[in-house]
Amino acid sequence: MRASRRLNQVYGWLLLTPAAILLLSFTHYPTVATLWQSFFSTGTALRPSRFVGLDNYRFMLEDEIFWKVVGNNLLFAAGTIPVSIALALLMAVWVNGRLPGRALVRMAYFTPTILPMIAVANIWLFFYTPEIGLLDQILRSFDLPTRNWLGDPDIVLWCIIVLAVWKEAGFFMIFYLAALQALPPELEEAARLEGASRAYYFRRVVFPLLMPTTLFVLVNAVINSFKLVDQLFILTKGGPDNASALLLYYIYEVAFSFFDDSYAATLTVVLLAALALISLGQFLFLDRRIHYR
What is the per-residue pLDDT for 152? Predict the structure, then answer.
Protein backbone atom coordinates (compact mmCIF):
# COMPACT_ATOMS: atom_id res chain seq x y z
CA MET A 1 0.00 0.00 0.00
CA ARG A 2 2.76 2.45 0.93
CA ALA A 3 4.71 1.62 -2.21
CA SER A 4 1.64 2.22 -4.35
CA ARG A 5 0.93 5.55 -2.62
CA ARG A 6 4.54 6.65 -3.03
CA LEU A 7 4.46 5.67 -6.69
CA ASN A 8 1.33 7.77 -7.19
CA GLN A 9 3.03 10.74 -5.54
CA VAL A 10 6.07 10.41 -7.80
CA TYR A 11 3.79 10.08 -10.81
CA GLY A 12 1.93 13.24 -9.79
CA TRP A 13 5.13 15.24 -9.37
CA LEU A 14 6.35 14.05 -12.76
CA LEU A 15 3.12 15.33 -14.31
CA LEU A 16 3.56 18.70 -12.59
CA THR A 17 7.25 19.09 -13.44
CA PRO A 18 6.92 20.51 -17.01
CA ALA A 19 4.39 23.13 -15.91
CA ALA A 20 6.47 23.95 -12.81
CA ILE A 21 9.60 24.45 -14.91
CA LEU A 22 7.78 26.81 -17.26
CA LEU A 23 6.24 28.71 -14.33
CA LEU A 24 9.57 29.12 -12.57
CA SER A 25 11.46 30.02 -15.75
CA PHE A 26 9.04 32.55 -17.23
CA THR A 27 7.18 33.93 -14.19
CA HIS A 28 8.92 33.57 -10.83
CA TYR A 29 12.55 33.92 -11.94
CA PRO A 30 11.93 37.08 -14.06
CA THR A 31 9.97 38.62 -11.18
CA VAL A 32 12.76 38.00 -8.66
CA ALA A 33 15.43 39.11 -11.16
CA THR A 34 13.53 42.34 -11.89
CA LEU A 35 13.17 43.07 -8.18
CA TRP A 36 16.88 42.45 -7.64
CA GLN A 37 17.88 44.64 -10.59
CA SER A 38 15.82 47.55 -9.24
CA PHE A 39 18.36 47.92 -6.41
CA PHE A 40 21.28 48.43 -8.82
CA SER A 41 22.31 51.18 -11.20
CA THR A 42 22.41 50.67 -14.95
CA GLY A 43 25.88 49.60 -15.97
CA THR A 44 27.81 50.82 -19.01
CA ALA A 45 31.06 49.83 -20.69
CA LEU A 46 32.95 52.43 -18.64
CA ARG A 47 30.94 52.32 -15.42
CA PRO A 48 29.82 48.92 -14.12
CA SER A 49 26.54 48.43 -12.33
CA ARG A 50 26.62 48.97 -8.56
CA PHE A 51 24.26 48.57 -5.65
CA VAL A 52 22.31 51.78 -5.00
CA GLY A 53 19.62 50.55 -2.62
CA LEU A 54 16.40 52.55 -2.90
CA ASP A 55 17.84 55.35 -5.05
CA ASN A 56 15.85 54.22 -8.10
CA TYR A 57 12.64 54.35 -6.06
CA ARG A 58 13.51 57.83 -4.75
CA PHE A 59 14.13 59.00 -8.29
CA MET A 60 10.80 57.53 -9.34
CA LEU A 61 8.97 59.52 -6.66
CA GLU A 62 10.59 62.70 -8.01
CA ASP A 63 9.94 61.84 -11.66
CA GLU A 64 7.25 64.20 -13.01
CA ILE A 65 6.71 62.08 -16.11
CA PHE A 66 6.05 59.02 -13.95
CA TRP A 67 3.28 60.79 -12.03
CA LYS A 68 1.77 62.13 -15.24
CA VAL A 69 1.78 58.64 -16.74
CA VAL A 70 0.21 57.21 -13.57
CA GLY A 71 -2.54 59.83 -13.77
CA ASN A 72 -3.10 58.97 -17.43
CA ASN A 73 -3.33 55.28 -16.59
CA LEU A 74 -5.79 55.83 -13.76
CA LEU A 75 -7.99 57.94 -16.04
CA PHE A 76 -7.68 55.30 -18.76
CA ALA A 77 -8.69 52.55 -16.32
CA ALA A 78 -11.63 54.59 -14.99
CA GLY A 79 -12.81 55.27 -18.54
CA THR A 80 -12.44 51.76 -19.96
CA ILE A 81 -13.23 49.28 -17.16
CA PRO A 82 -16.84 50.21 -16.22
CA VAL A 83 -17.87 51.11 -19.77
CA SER A 84 -16.47 47.94 -21.37
CA ILE A 85 -17.99 45.70 -18.68
CA ALA A 86 -21.39 47.41 -18.91
CA LEU A 87 -21.38 47.19 -22.72
CA ALA A 88 -20.31 43.55 -22.58
CA LEU A 89 -23.20 42.71 -20.26
CA LEU A 90 -25.72 44.60 -22.39
CA MET A 91 -24.50 42.93 -25.57
CA ALA A 92 -24.60 39.49 -23.95
CA VAL A 93 -28.17 39.98 -22.78
CA TRP A 94 -29.12 41.28 -26.23
CA VAL A 95 -27.64 38.40 -28.24
CA ASN A 96 -28.85 35.81 -25.72
CA GLY A 97 -32.47 36.58 -26.51
CA ARG A 98 -34.56 35.58 -29.47
CA LEU A 99 -32.92 37.97 -31.89
CA PRO A 100 -33.21 37.49 -35.67
CA GLY A 101 -29.77 36.78 -37.09
CA ARG A 102 -28.24 36.64 -33.63
CA ALA A 103 -25.33 34.48 -34.86
CA LEU A 104 -24.34 37.30 -37.20
CA VAL A 105 -24.72 39.87 -34.42
CA ARG A 106 -22.57 37.79 -32.08
CA MET A 107 -19.88 37.54 -34.74
CA ALA A 108 -20.03 41.29 -35.34
CA TYR A 109 -19.61 42.01 -31.63
CA PHE A 110 -16.74 39.54 -31.27
CA THR A 111 -14.85 40.50 -34.45
CA PRO A 112 -12.84 43.39 -32.88
CA THR A 113 -11.46 40.94 -30.32
CA ILE A 114 -9.83 38.63 -32.87
CA LEU A 115 -8.27 41.45 -34.90
CA PRO A 116 -4.53 41.97 -34.30
CA MET A 117 -3.62 44.97 -32.18
CA ILE A 118 -1.68 46.62 -35.00
CA ALA A 119 -4.60 46.19 -37.40
CA VAL A 120 -6.98 47.76 -34.87
CA ALA A 121 -4.63 50.71 -34.42
CA ASN A 122 -4.41 51.26 -38.17
CA ILE A 123 -8.21 51.09 -38.52
CA TRP A 124 -8.68 53.77 -35.89
CA LEU A 125 -5.81 55.80 -37.31
CA PHE A 126 -7.93 56.08 -40.45
CA PHE A 127 -10.77 57.43 -38.28
CA TYR A 128 -8.60 59.93 -36.40
CA THR A 129 -6.33 61.25 -39.18
CA PRO A 130 -6.78 65.03 -39.52
CA GLU A 131 -8.60 66.35 -42.61
CA ILE A 132 -8.81 63.00 -44.42
CA GLY A 133 -9.97 60.78 -41.54
CA LEU A 134 -13.52 59.45 -41.35
CA LEU A 135 -14.43 61.56 -38.31
CA ASP A 136 -13.27 64.79 -39.92
CA GLN A 137 -15.09 63.92 -43.14
CA ILE A 138 -18.32 63.43 -41.19
CA LEU A 139 -17.84 66.72 -39.35
CA ARG A 140 -17.10 68.52 -42.60
CA SER A 141 -20.28 67.15 -44.18
CA PHE A 142 -22.26 68.91 -41.42
CA ASP A 143 -20.18 72.12 -41.76
CA LEU A 144 -18.64 71.53 -38.34
CA PRO A 145 -15.01 72.38 -37.49
CA THR A 146 -12.53 69.52 -37.75
CA ARG A 147 -10.07 68.56 -35.03
CA ASN A 148 -6.64 67.06 -34.70
CA TRP A 149 -7.91 64.14 -32.63
CA LEU A 150 -4.54 62.60 -31.75
CA GLY A 151 -2.67 65.90 -31.58
CA ASP A 152 -4.82 67.59 -28.94
CA PRO A 153 -3.60 66.86 -25.38
CA ASP A 154 -7.10 67.38 -24.01
CA ILE A 155 -8.79 64.66 -26.06
CA VAL A 156 -6.08 62.26 -27.21
CA LEU A 157 -6.43 59.98 -24.19
CA TRP A 158 -10.21 59.83 -24.64
CA CYS A 159 -9.63 58.74 -28.23
CA ILE A 160 -7.49 55.85 -26.96
CA ILE A 161 -10.19 55.00 -24.40
CA VAL A 162 -12.83 54.72 -27.14
CA LEU A 163 -10.54 52.37 -29.09
CA ALA A 164 -9.90 50.18 -26.04
CA VAL A 165 -13.60 49.87 -25.19
CA TRP A 166 -14.39 48.93 -28.79
CA LYS A 167 -11.67 46.26 -28.69
CA GLU A 168 -12.44 44.70 -25.29
CA ALA A 169 -16.24 44.79 -24.92
CA GLY A 170 -16.76 41.92 -27.37
CA PHE A 171 -14.19 39.78 -25.54
CA PHE A 172 -15.91 40.23 -22.19
CA MET A 173 -19.29 39.62 -23.84
CA ILE A 174 -18.31 36.00 -24.56
CA PHE A 175 -17.91 35.24 -20.84
CA TYR A 176 -21.21 36.87 -19.93
CA LEU A 177 -22.96 35.05 -22.76
CA ALA A 178 -21.60 31.70 -21.58
CA ALA A 179 -22.73 32.48 -18.02
CA LEU A 180 -26.22 33.49 -19.19
CA GLN A 181 -26.63 30.30 -21.18
CA ALA A 182 -25.60 28.25 -18.12
CA LEU A 183 -28.42 29.65 -15.98
CA PRO A 184 -31.28 27.18 -15.36
CA PRO A 185 -34.37 28.14 -17.41
CA GLU A 186 -36.53 27.18 -14.43
CA LEU A 187 -35.51 30.41 -12.71
CA GLU A 188 -37.10 32.57 -15.40
CA GLU A 189 -40.23 30.40 -15.46
CA ALA A 190 -40.59 30.70 -11.69
CA ALA A 191 -40.13 34.48 -11.88
CA ARG A 192 -42.86 34.74 -14.52
CA LEU A 193 -45.23 32.69 -12.39
CA GLU A 194 -44.58 35.04 -9.48
CA GLY A 195 -45.34 38.04 -11.70
CA ALA A 196 -41.84 39.51 -11.62
CA SER A 197 -40.96 41.94 -14.38
CA ARG A 198 -37.97 41.32 -16.64
CA ALA A 199 -36.05 44.18 -15.05
CA TYR A 200 -36.74 42.89 -11.54
CA TYR A 201 -35.78 39.34 -12.57
CA PHE A 202 -32.50 40.54 -14.05
CA ARG A 203 -31.65 42.74 -11.05
CA ARG A 204 -32.58 40.26 -8.30
CA VAL A 205 -31.83 36.90 -9.91
CA VAL A 206 -29.64 37.08 -13.03
CA PHE A 207 -27.13 39.74 -12.00
CA PRO A 208 -26.28 38.16 -8.61
CA LEU A 209 -25.70 34.83 -10.34
CA LEU A 210 -23.39 36.57 -12.81
CA MET A 211 -21.13 37.93 -10.07
CA PRO A 212 -18.47 35.18 -10.40
CA THR A 213 -18.19 36.06 -14.08
CA THR A 214 -18.15 39.75 -13.25
CA LEU A 215 -15.25 39.23 -10.84
CA PHE A 216 -13.31 37.32 -13.49
CA VAL A 217 -14.02 39.98 -16.12
CA LEU A 218 -13.16 42.79 -13.71
CA VAL A 219 -9.75 41.31 -12.87
CA ASN A 220 -8.98 40.90 -16.58
CA ALA A 221 -10.20 44.42 -17.35
CA VAL A 222 -7.93 45.90 -14.69
CA ILE A 223 -4.93 44.00 -16.01
CA ASN A 224 -5.72 45.01 -19.60
CA SER A 225 -6.00 48.66 -18.62
CA PHE A 226 -2.37 48.63 -17.46
CA LYS A 227 -0.81 46.72 -20.35
CA LEU A 228 -1.79 48.75 -23.40
CA VAL A 229 1.25 49.30 -25.62
CA ASP A 230 0.62 48.23 -29.22
CA GLN A 231 -1.92 50.89 -30.19
CA LEU A 232 0.23 53.67 -28.76
CA PHE A 233 3.08 52.75 -31.11
CA ILE A 234 0.90 53.32 -34.15
CA LEU A 235 -1.34 56.15 -32.97
CA THR A 236 0.54 58.54 -30.69
CA LYS A 237 3.83 57.12 -29.33
CA GLY A 238 2.74 58.59 -26.02
CA GLY A 239 2.33 62.14 -27.33
CA PRO A 240 1.65 64.92 -27.47
CA ASP A 241 3.79 65.81 -24.45
CA ASN A 242 3.10 62.41 -22.80
CA ALA A 243 -0.64 63.17 -22.79
CA SER A 244 -1.44 59.63 -23.96
CA ALA A 245 1.51 57.76 -22.43
CA LEU A 246 0.54 54.87 -20.16
CA LEU A 247 2.67 53.15 -17.56
CA LEU A 248 3.69 50.07 -19.55
CA TYR A 249 4.56 52.21 -22.57
CA TYR A 250 6.69 54.43 -20.32
CA ILE A 251 8.49 51.34 -19.04
CA TYR A 252 9.19 50.34 -22.63
CA GLU A 253 10.58 53.79 -23.42
CA VAL A 254 12.83 53.80 -20.37
CA ALA A 255 14.16 50.33 -21.14
CA PHE A 256 14.54 50.39 -24.92
CA SER A 257 14.76 54.09 -25.83
CA PHE A 258 16.70 55.46 -22.85
CA PHE A 259 18.46 52.12 -22.11
CA ASP A 260 17.97 52.54 -18.36
CA ASP A 261 17.28 48.93 -17.43
CA SER A 262 17.43 49.46 -13.67
CA TYR A 263 14.88 52.27 -13.63
CA ALA A 264 12.65 50.24 -15.97
CA ALA A 265 12.92 47.35 -13.50
CA THR A 266 11.89 49.70 -10.69
CA LEU A 267 8.83 50.84 -12.63
CA THR A 268 7.97 47.22 -13.42
CA VAL A 269 8.14 46.24 -9.74
CA VAL A 270 5.78 49.08 -8.84
CA LEU A 271 3.38 48.09 -11.62
CA LEU A 272 3.36 44.43 -10.54
CA ALA A 273 2.85 45.37 -6.90
CA ALA A 274 -0.04 47.70 -7.78
CA LEU A 275 -1.76 45.05 -9.91
CA ALA A 276 -1.28 42.43 -7.19
CA LEU A 277 -2.81 44.69 -4.54
CA ILE A 278 -5.74 45.64 -6.78
CA SER A 279 -6.46 42.02 -7.67
CA LEU A 280 -6.17 40.95 -4.04
CA GLY A 281 -8.56 43.70 -2.99
CA GLN A 282 -11.05 42.66 -5.65
CA PHE A 283 -11.05 39.06 -4.44
CA LEU A 284 -11.25 39.99 -0.76
CA PHE A 285 -14.06 42.57 -1.01
CA LEU A 286 -16.08 41.28 -3.96
CA ASP A 287 -15.97 37.62 -3.00
CA ARG A 288 -18.42 38.31 -0.17
CA ARG A 289 -20.99 39.55 -2.68
CA ILE A 290 -20.64 36.57 -4.99
CA HIS A 291 -23.17 33.75 -4.98
CA TYR A 292 -21.59 30.54 -6.16
CA ARG A 293 -23.82 27.75 -7.36
Answer: 92
